[in-house]
Write a structure and sequence with these properties.
With 467 residues, this protein is of the alpha/beta class. It is 59% helix and 7% strand. The chain has 4 domains: 13-94 and 185-230, P-loop containing nucleotide triphosphate hydrolases (Rossmann fold, 3-Layer(aba) Sandwich), CATH 3.40.50; 101-175, no CATH class; 236-303, Orthogonal Bundle (Helicase, Ruva Protein, domain 3); 307-459, Zinc Finger, Delta Prime, domain 3 (Up-down Bundle), CATH 1.20.272.10. Helix 5 (101-111) runs antiparallel to helix 6, helix 6 (116-130) crosses helix 9 (162-175) and helix 18 runs antiparallel to helix 21. The relative contact order is 0.09. Residues 1-9 and 396-400 have low confidence and may be disordered.
Length: 467
């Protein structure tokens, strides 16, 4: 008779092996990359609770509503069914380093278009940091807050464009019934509970992107819990391979396929980020229903337009000298998405610089495989190795930032670079540098300055045009 195989050495595989053997710890801490944590959490819960028991003995506490006293009460209470009871705290804020209100508010604005519920939850967290409540701001109450109050909360920074995004966030918070709740984060009681031990059969699972190792609670949890670290894949190639593997698994489970154009559109909107891409793909699987293939138009309809999409559109319109379209895109960015004019300027500078670098690559004659109109797959196989070869031989400061970007960013820059001549791109960068000085020193309306730049560039007949 063959002996049982030895258990895995460490990590999630070892924990799952222990759970299958009936060895269940009283608490677990999952740290690191969001998608890998979600995947591990699903497996751990499935190993502890049957599907029938999950309906009654599984409890989730969301970060914006986590009151530590209520958490302790839940951990002490007996399960509803005679089985294990699992309490999950996602994004345990009482373990994380202190977040700054300004950074949290930027997260709200960044996620408002693509993930409005997440933006609303982040906004509730921001309110707790600011000492405000939803009642203070709803029904136009935010208009009564002075610039000095905003500046106090945001460490001296202002937010003059809040009328563009704040009413939308407040509306989502009210619709979702994310009513103001003061989150009690005094952790003394939880510390005592963990040290004395949870009631038999009750299990606490905490997740966090990062933790503050200086906190006493963190040290207690590290000593009393099974801690699993999920680090993001290091290196671009490994990250892409992991994303493709996880995408393939998700599609196979759902009986779906992803059209090549849909994959590119998904990457453009998520930056090929593992967590963002898989969340978006889950939405697309649900959206397409019985249809087996996910198409590009599905991605465009479900995921929505990003700031990066609009910057692409803006530079394309500039290259084609289409002033009306460029102004419309600019107004979408600043008016509808609430992006600060200086942020638009910096994004525009970055994009124009990338286009210039792409033209330098192409004009050098050292990209023998490059052909106008080639698809992304061909570009990855044929052109990227040539670029990496050039990068490997470069001196510091040579070639520039584009070579260090994701291959899809490089592909997009090469694909669109033909819309400008070298002289037009250089002139554009010079004008944007002048505009940056004007925005920071003259006190003139930054949006109007950007519009003036668009009009002067598109209608300057003396300016160099397309190649």
């Amino acid at each position: 008779m063959n002996p049982d195989p030895p258990p895995p050495a460490d990590g999630l595989a070892k924990v799952l092996h222990e759970l299958q053997a009936g060895k269940i710890a009283s608490s677990y801490l999952l740290l690191g990359e969001a998608f890998l944590i979600r995947e591990a959490l699903t497996k751990i819960i499935a190993a502890i609770l049957t599907e029938r028991d999950r309906a009654f003995n599984l409890f989730f506490m969301e970060p914006e509503l986590t009151d530590v006293d209520k958490l302790c009460e839940e951990l002490i209470a007996a399960p509803l069914l005679p089985a294990h009871k699992v309490v999950v705290v996602r994004q345990a804020v009482f373990l994380s380093p202190r977040q700054q209100p300004l950074r949290m508010l930027r997260q709200v604005r960044d996620h408002l278009d693509n993930d409005p519920l997440r933006a609303a939850k982040d906004f509730m967290t921001f309110l707790g940091m600011a000492g405000w409540t939803l009642e203070d701001l709803r029904d136009g109450g935010w208009k009564r807050l002075s610039q000095e109050e905003w500046s106090r909360v945001l460490d001296g920074e202002g937010d003059e464009n809040r009328e563009k995004w704040l009413p939308r966030v407040l509306e989502i918070c009210v619709e979702r019934q994310l009513l103001p709740q003061r989150r009690k984060t005094d952790t003394d009681r939880l510390e005592e509970l963990l040290l004395s031990g949870l009631p038999a059969g009750n299990v606490l699972i905490l997740t966090a992107a990062s933790i503050d190792k200086r906190k006493r609670l963190t040290k207690i949890i590290s000593d009393t819990s099974r801690v699993l670290q999920f680090s993001a894949a290091k290196g671009e190639a490994r990250g892409q391979r992991l994303l493709m593997d996880k995408t393939r698994e998700l599609l196979e489970r759902s009986g779906k396929s992803l059209a090549p154009a849909a994959w590119l559109a998904l990457g453009r909107k998520t930056g090929f980020d593992l967590d963002s891409s898989t969340r978006a793909l889950e939405k697309l699987v649900a959206f397409t229903g019985e249809r087996s293939q996910i198409r590009q138009e599905d991605v465009e309809q479900v995921i929505g337009k990003t700031k990066e999409d609009n910057i692409f559109d803006l530079t394309t319109a500039l290259g084609d000298k289409m002033a009306s379209k460029a102004l419309t895109v600019l107004r979408d960015l600043i008016g509808d998405q609430g992006v600060q004019p200086l942020v638009v300027l910096s994004m525009l500078v970055r994009e124009i610089r990338f286009l210039l670098h792409a033209r330098i690559f192409i004009n050098s004659g050292r990209l023998g495989s490059w052909q106008t109109g080639m698809d992304y797959g061909q570009f990855q196989r044929q052109v990227i190795p040539e670029i990496k070869s050039l990068v490997g031989a470069r001196e510091k400061g040579e070639l520039g930032d584009l070579a260090d970007e994701h291959p899809y960013v490089v592909y997009q820059a090469c694909r669109r670079a033909h819309r400008f001549s070298d002289a037009a791109l250089i002139k554009c960068i010079q004008e944007l540098a002048r505009l940056d000085v004007q925005m920071k020193t003259t006190g003139r309306d930054a949006h109007l300055l950007l519009e003036s730049f668009v009009l002067s560039f598109c209608f300057d007949k003396a300016a160099p045009g397309r190649a």
